[in-house]
Amino acid sequence: MAESLVAIVLDRLLSITGQQAAHSLKLVTGINEEVESLTSNLHAIKAVLKDAEKRQVNDFAVKHCDDEVESHFEKSIWVYVSDPFEEERIAVEILKCFLGRKPDLVGKHHIMQKISDLVYGKKILLVLDDVWTDDPRKWE
Question: Residues 106, 88: contact at Cβ < 8 Å?
Answer without folding.
Answer: no
